[in-house]
Specification:
13 strands; alpha/beta; D-Maltodextrin-Binding Protein, domain 2; 18 helices; seven-stranded mixed β-sheet; disordered N terminus
Amino acid sequence: MRIRGVSGSAAALCLAVLLAACSSGTSGSGGTTATQAAQTGPVTLDFWCWSAGQKEKVAAFNKAHPDIQVRHTDAGGGTDTATKLVTAGRAGNAPDAACLEYQTIPAMIVAGALADISAHTADVKDAFTPEVWSLTSFDGAVYGVPQDVGPMVMVYNRKRFDELKIEVPKTWQDFATVAAAVRAKDPDTYLATFAPAEFGNFAGLAQQAGATWWKVQDQTWTVGIADAASTEVAAYWQGLVDKDLVKVQPLLTPEWNNQLNKGRILSWPSALWATGVLYGVAEKQAGDWAIAPLPQWTEGDDRVAFQGGSAIAVTKNSKHLQAAATFAKWMNTDKAAYELQIAAGEYPASLAGQQATTASEPPKLAGGQKDYWEVAAKAAQRTIPHISWGPNVSTAQSAFQDAMAAAVRDKTPLTQALQKTQQVVVDDMTSTGFKVAAP
């Protein structure tokens, strides 16, 4: 299958466009300078975050910063936190800082929920690759400090691969060939799963193939959820589904977990965090799994997208902007912080944190893989730069899940599901005041 290369026209989100397209804007530095701890006594910050190891990291920060004390609350996962943050921001009682998934940050900017902390973060910009830093910075403004990243890899059951005498696929064409070999050698087993609800996963595979789902130029948006690359990716998976070469079902259900534990699901093309997720449902397979580079759409092109990851952002409601920025920086660049992060199973966004992983043991699921962190580092180094997310990602995710589930149920083309998703997204953006170009 031929898929076009990654487009160089994937522009970073422009803050000026966001301001022109919505009624609620963002002010430069939030309009409020930080309260200085030395002048007013200890500053107390409220912080929302769901991800692993936060309790321990906050405790370490508080111990190291007697003049800035942080109260941590788990407000729910990424979607829940983003939704609650908008509501709290409008009521004027948002926390000082919060974890946000990268794809939700544009919507938070549109909602006027985040403060520009560029005046307080120049000293840590070089702690990250330009690709990672660009996930939280738009048009010269900075809206968060990157925390963890999820470069895409292929997580696979190495023990079962060896038993079936199959090779790790290097390309997606190889992947289809291996999927057929697995079904021929063990009819109860599948190489992988096609899960209709996995919006982020499909987006990452489409981006790897060259898709640009949102971009903006001269205050006009283009939506490419049903573009040529995305359509070809959908057609690829359609072929696997039609030939019964992949298991069609949701991930992480009791049924799916049972199949995984029986060695009947052999891989998960996903992100680095997947090893921790799988260990949580298949502890007895510790040491049986490994990671490999994600299969390539075009042989020799090893670029991959991020699937998931988060940053710590500072809200416009915060009265302690500088202190909150200090907290966000420490949590994502300090040695004590990233060591706790690695221990919790996250892959740090910072370069120093990523380097520290090379001296760490691999996650328990892949305990026997000596080059685990080397494979991880290469994936992180080869991520596609300047991936842009739009202002209505949550709408797109809901529409995608509904359309894909219906396509699987009704046996209609997955490509049509993409077209339906695109139309919902375009209609939603147009109705809320964005100028959207014709496809």
